[in-house]
Design goal:
Length: 174
């Protein structure tokens, strides 16, 4: 009997491997944006971190739900999946200008985590494709993401890489 294929569990495993390769904890969260925001606030309170911020929460890879799993014509695979938004975020200072954001956040943290994320997807065996550069998606560098953003926003001041419409084919579980 085949086990259930749970897409969020696949991404949880991928982010665990990203943490190992990165050499530091990379937190993973998934769910509706409001739930992720609430969980980040609750995490702050639980850890007694001041002003609803804290480095213990970041870097973060957040998978925003809901997303479609197109079944039936995936050529023997579990499903073709399109993830509307995955966010790779790191705490920042609201006083940084763009050059500082790239110097202190994007180049040393966000870009390496993004690259590792794609590499671990390619190595997972649960997502079809072994070339990290072949996963169809749109990437945004989001400066000043967080408290000032309308819509999908986090409660902390963060810089982020936003991955939109990541299209993948998921293998069948055994």
């Amino acid at each position: 009997m085949k086990s259930n294929t749970i897409v969020v569990d696949i991404f949880k495993d991928i982010v665990e491997k990203v943490s190992v390769e990165y050499g530091s904890n990379v937190r993973f969260m998934y769910g509706p944006v409001e739930e992720i925001e609430a969980d980040l606030v609750n995490l702050t309170r639980a850890q007694g971190l001041p002003n609803a911020t804290g480095m213990a929460k970041y870097p973060l890879i957040a998978l925003f739900q809901d997303f479609p799993e197109k079944r039936g014509d995936a050529n023997g695979y579990y499903a073709d999946v399109t993830i509307p938004i995955i966010l790779i975020a790191n705490l920042t200072k609201n006083t940084y200008k763009a050059p500082e954001r790239y110097e202190y956040n994007f180049k040393p943290i966000l870009y390496p985590v993004y690259k590792l994320f794609l590499q671990e997807m390619a190595k997972s065996g649960k997502i079809i494709g072994n070339d990290p550069d072949s996963f169809d998606h749109t990437k945004f560098d989001r400066l000043y993401y967080g408290r000032k953003t309308v819509g999908t926003a986090l409660n902390d001041y963060v810089d982020a890489i936003e991955i939109n419409n990541l299209r993948i084919t998921v293998a069948q579980s055994c």
